[in-house]
Amino acid sequence: MRIAVIGVGMVGSALGPRFADAGHEVVYGVRDPGADRHDELLSATPGGTTAIIADAAAGSDAVLLAVPWEAIDSVVGQLGSASGLVWDATNPLSQDMRHLREDAEPSGAAVVAARLPTAKVVKAFNCTGAPNLASPAYPAGPIAMFLAGDDPAAKTTTAAVCREIGMSPVDLGPLEMARSLEHLALCWIRLAYAQGMGPDFTIGIRHRAVG
User: Fold this and answer.
1) For the whole model, what pTM was predicted?
2) Taking the CA of residue 210 as centre, how many other CA atoms within 13 Å lie in the half-sphere pointing to its CB?
3) What confidence score (pLDDT) does residue 211 get?
4) What is the CATH number of domain 2-194?
């Protein structure tokens, strides 16, 4: 499938090469296609290209939103009447990164879905740090990737892609659960940085052995 990665910050730069390694066509949506500053990322993304946001999204099977929350209005406005799968990996964090923003209620994903009413929005790839997205393997197994959305087929596709890139998908339910995933991201950030745990850990699920 063709995946448009909108944003080349830490999250987009971590996931784009993973998608490409799994055999997907990756196009990065950026403001300055062809700029030299993208050369290193493109060299790490087999077959990867850059395009302006509107062109990257057009004709793509899935669009990953991996931009700061402050940019979401501008970015979504460039997606036009998107009707396909949209992965919302954003987190509407306050400036001090201690709270979720009140202007992103009931969740950031709900705001995105309201702006893109014909899109199939799935909250995913938001609840852990970029190092885990780039390298999801742990001794105890792959990291859990929590997701939420209202379209069953969109979630099935998302779960399949998660498995392809080495993650264990966990369906949390409808899109109304997206706020919980944004709080989970806040917990991870708090532990990693404010509490000094560092980024090399993951929040996951462990099942008690039976029998």
Assistant:
1) 0.95
2) 2
3) 56
4) 3.40.50.720
